[in-house]
Design goal:
binds zinc ion, 2 domains, Rossmann fold, 7-stranded mixed beta sheet, 15 strands, binds S-adenosylmethionine, 13 helices, Phenylalanyl-tRNA Synthetase, Chain B, domain 1, alpha/beta
């Protein structure tokens, strides 16, 4: 129901997300993407707390929900709401003018890349650039670097799961400069190809892009990166992932070892190799800690706190995961209960965690053979069904 204090355009419903009230009208808006927006708001709160200021360029704003939330919840001092579709102007104007003082926002309708070059032309750099694109954000990776402040954040969205999951490797080569192959950790591969691409683009400009957080949900990959002056390029963080279809073992592969990949199982077929992609941590632990701190301020962030806890646990784990169904299938046993298998692996001296990438998977430092062995033991110990 519309709030009595809000204007109620015919056939339109005011809705609320976080502190933002808005009408969607003809804009593209998915309420199911709220967690991706929540995480960005928490990172923005942490940024503002740390830096004392926050100016946001919301480059593909749609109905303006993010612009509203950055100001109303993260205390952004100023937001530039850009939307390529001119026909959304009156909707966007109505949404922003309803809740924001006129001097704290600006609305434009231009291609996002024009906005980025305009920033550079005027030497007016932003603390946070949000690029909520359809498909791949590749056309905006290098250009957004012209508009972001040193130390600032870029938030990227990718919905081209077909290319990143290995089902269209030539497409991923065109988009990310990386050959993506199919394997069971495809959700994570989408995030890592994206981080790898922006890290490499940043490096060409003498900058470093490193992940603040990475989030996969329902075929959408989202990555927030921090852009800083270049620190030493770490080749170990930008390489390849190999997967053996014979035994199910993953391994990382660095540039020097290309061409010398083999699996310990000695299968006749060689492992398939994906990449290059980001092989470093998926998230930044200090940033997640700050986001968690911000999320403690209200009960409405409870779900985000649980998610952030999971991200913190998986952050330093190897760059892949094992689906439980895959472990069951290869081990010719039941699908092992996630928590029981994690505890068994930890008891054996390995590290093992849940992962936000799939509720039906684990991350572990153990070889796949050990996972299969423990899954069989777990299955034998379980009481037989009556
Ligand atoms: C996924 S929707 C944005 C949704 C919105 N950020 C939200 O959270 O609800 C993408 C928007 O970007 C706009 N858009 C697409 N390509 C663009 C471009 N190159 N420059 C500016 N806007 C663009 C589309 O018109 C669309 O409204
Ligand atoms: Zn193998």
């Amino acid at each position: 129901m519309p709030s009595p204090s809000l204007p109620s355009p015919p056939q339109e419903q005011w809705q609320q997300e976080g502190a933002a009230h808005f009408c969607v009208g003809d804009a593209f808006f998915r309420s199911s993407s709220q967690t991706g927006r929540d995480l960005a708001v928490l990172a923005a709160i942490a940024y503002k707390t740390h830096h004392g200021q926050l100016r946001v360029l919301d480059a593909m704003t749609g109905c303006g929900v993010r612009s509203l939330r950055y100001v109303l919840e993260a205390g952004a001092d100023y937001v530039w709401a850009n939307e390529g579709n001119w026909e959304l102007r009156s909707r966007l104007q109505a949404n922003l003018s309803h809740s924001l003082p006129p001097d704290c926002y600006r609305i434009t309708h231009q291609d996002a890349n024009v906005a980025f070059f305009d920033c550079h032309q005027r030497q007016d750099f932003y603390d946070l650039i949000d690029i909520d694109s359809f498909g791949s954000p590749a056309p905006y990776l290098s250009t957004s670097l012209w508009a972001v402040k040193l130390g600032g954040l870029i938030y990227l969205t990718s919905t081209d799961g077909r290319a990143t999951s290995g089902h269209a490797p030539d497409k991923s080569l065109q988009t990310y400069g990386a050959y993506a192959r199919a394997h069971p950790a495809a959700h994570e591969q989408g995030l890592r190809l994206l981080i790898g691409a922006v890290a490499q683009q940043a490096a060409t400009r003498g900058l470093t892009a490193s992940p603040v957080f990475s989030y996969y949900q329902g075929e959408v990959s989202r990555v927030m990166v921090r852009i800083t002056r270049q620190s030493a390029w770490q080749s170990a963080h930008y390489g390849f992932l190999a997967y053996c279809h014979a035994c199910g073992q993953f391994q990382t592969l660095l540039w020097k070892k290309l061409g010398r990949v083999s699996c310990p199982c000695r299968a006749a077929g060689l492992p398939v190799v994906s990449g290059p992609m980001w092989l470093g941590p998926l998230h930044s632990e200090p940033d997640l800690a700050a986001m968690h701190g911000a999320a403690l301020k209200s009960d409405r962030w409870t779900d985000c706190r649980v998610l952030i806890d999971m991200m913190r646990a998986e952050s330093a784990m190897p760059p892949y995961y094992y689906p439980l169904a895959e472990i069951g299938r290869r081990g010719k046993t039941d699908i092992p209960p996630r928590q029981v298998l994690i505890e068994q692996l930890c008891r054996e001296g390995f590290t093992a965690t849940r992962t936000h990438l799939s509720a039906e998977a684990i991350k572990t430092t153990a070889p796949v053979g050990i996972c299969l062995q423990l899954a069989r033991q777990v299955s034998q110990r379980s009481p037989l069904p009556e």
